[in-house]
């Protein structure tokens, strides 16, 4: 995504190339309005109005673009993303109306991760004009938030360790005049013992820490956002395979979502008392790594037997959720790349949602559907809680069978959320294994827009 140019701009009558959006059902009728040469150009490009098709059509001394969409009456966030990827640099406007939600995919179709190499062959930006000026600033902010998640997740662990996540939280605080407290070292061991235990084996420059950002009036409703910040996950002493470790730079994807969501909330000015909590660690292997069979103390006072050192994300979240609960929030949400079981159940595109209250779950589901960021609810069945029993501690961190892994992980987290709190949990993948229009392979925001629009609807004021 261009960092120097807003890719969505208000339409003030500027010179622009027209884009016609056509669906397959209306293609024949629309094509009849064209000249014979123009129809021949479409035929040569095998354009028939199917979704994500693109074509360029001569028009006198110039040309116009055509994009195939599923339904011209109901545009999606992604229906113009392919156009943004393939059209020449320039300024464009939709010919038969406004782009509406498609402005989102138009921006993200131009995203590229260029931290480690120059994209010398890249063309200039493709700018899309809209007369819906009221929503332009928020559309730009949402796209920036998604790009932030992508950038953070795509960055290798050596450059995106706990200290780098701390820097991101500090940048956010400076931008929006928020306050940040960072806990590390001996104080971390005392106040967030499970965060310390998981991260203590890492090298000094990747030392564990807990960040806590606060923003907003103290009289406003309290909302807490928690993000799992495992900056790299070797699996610990229960070490992963080489293939299982390959993409573990993305294990801080929950923290990336939480940071981006907090930024959106502050930019939108939603009147809440915001608490952003990010426990950040590297789950490394060394002589002082925590071991299978160890019993850890937690901030809440529960003792946790370690059945698997590769189930570490729920440990650091346990301490952070306990701290968030101490603020007695009206709503609390966490994001975590928590289980492979969620991906087995739902695949890479759908984040698993678990929630205590049906109304909050439904509000998140509805917001996701409305903004092309769908999630799918999984249960928190109390009966499965017995699988986390320990013979020597209050609970185990992992269960010994292969059943319902995502839900059992959610049940573990639930132990650390204070009774009565309206809490939701996203087990998100934060990764796209194969590209789609507007959504390149690599880091991805999944559940971010659903959560933002749900919070905006519940707590926002127009």
TrEMBL record:
Question: Would I find Iron-sulfur among this entry's keywords?
Answer: no
Question: A single GO molecular function, which one?
Answer: metalloaminopeptidase activity
Q: Name one GO cellular component term.
A: cytoplasm
- SUPFAM superfamilies xrefs: Zn-dependent exopeptidases
CDD domains in the cross-refs: Peptidase_M17
Q: Which UniProt keywords apply?
A: Aminopeptidase, Hydrolase, Manganese, Protease
- Which GO biological process entries does UniProt record here? proteolysis
Task: Read off the Gene3D superfamilies from this record.
Answer: Leucine Aminopeptidase, subunit E, domain 1, Zn peptidases
A Pfam family of the record is: Peptidase_M17
Membrane-crossing ranges are: none
Its recorded name reads: Leucyl aminopeptidase family protein
Q: Which organism is it from?
A: Qipengyuania oceanensis
């Amino acid at each position: 995504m261009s960092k120097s140019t807003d890719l969505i701009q208000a339409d003030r009558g500027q010179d622009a190339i027209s884009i016609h959006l056509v669906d397959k059902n209306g293609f024949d009728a629309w094509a009849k309005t064209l000249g014979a040469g123009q129809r021949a150009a479409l035929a040569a490009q095998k354009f028939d109005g199917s979704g994500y098709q693109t074509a360029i059509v001569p028009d006198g001394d110039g040309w116009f673009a055509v994009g195939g969409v599923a339904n011209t009456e109901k545009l999606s966030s992604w229906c113009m993303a392919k156009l943004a990827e393939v059209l020449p640099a320039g300024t464009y406007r939709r010919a038969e109306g406004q782009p509406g939600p498609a402005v989102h995919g138009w921006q993200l179709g131009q995203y590229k991760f260029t931290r480690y190499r120059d994209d010398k062959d890249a063309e200039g930006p493709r700018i899309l004009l809209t007369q819906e000026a009221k929503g332009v600033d928020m559309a730009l902010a949402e796209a920036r938030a998604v790009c932030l998640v992508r950038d953070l997740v795509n960055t290798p662990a050596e450059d995106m360790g706990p200290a780098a996540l701390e820097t991101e939280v500090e940048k956010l605080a400076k931008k929006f005049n928020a306050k940040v407290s960072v806990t590390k070292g001996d104080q971390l061991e005392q106040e967030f013992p499970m965060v310390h235990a998981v991260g203590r084996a890492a090298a000094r420059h990747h030392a564990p820490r807990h960040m806590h950002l606060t923003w907003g009036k103290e009289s406003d409703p309290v909302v807490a956002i928690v993000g799992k910040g495992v900056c790299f996950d070797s699996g610990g002493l229960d070490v992963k395979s080489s293939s299982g470790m390959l993409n573990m730079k993305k294990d801080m994807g929950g923290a990336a979502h939480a940071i981006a969501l907090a930024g959106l909330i502050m930019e939108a000015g939603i009147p809440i008392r915001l608490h952003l909590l990010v426990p950040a660690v590297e789950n490394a292997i060394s002589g002082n790594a925590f071991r299978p069979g160890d019993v850890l103390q937690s901030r809440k006072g529960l003792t946790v037997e370690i059945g698997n050192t590769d189930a570490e994300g729920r440990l650091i979240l346990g301490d952070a959720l306990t701290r968030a609960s101490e603020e007695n929030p009206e709503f609390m949400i966490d994001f975590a790349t928590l289980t492979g079981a969620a991906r087995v159940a739902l695949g890479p595109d759908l984040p698993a949602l678990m929630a205590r209250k049906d109304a909050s779950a439904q509000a998140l589901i509805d917001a996701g559907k409305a903004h092309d960021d769908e999630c799918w609810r999984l249960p928190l069945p109390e009966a499965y809680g017995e699988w986390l029993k320990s013979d020597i501690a209050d609970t185990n961190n992992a269960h010994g069978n292969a059943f319902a892994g995502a839900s059992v992980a959610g049940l573990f987290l639930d132990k650390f959320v204070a009774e009565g709190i309206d809490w939701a949990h996203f087990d998100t993948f934060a990764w796209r294994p194969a590209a789609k229009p507007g959504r390149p392979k690599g880091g991805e925001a999944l559940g971010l827009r659903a959560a933002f629009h749900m919070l905006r609807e519940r707590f926002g004021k127009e």
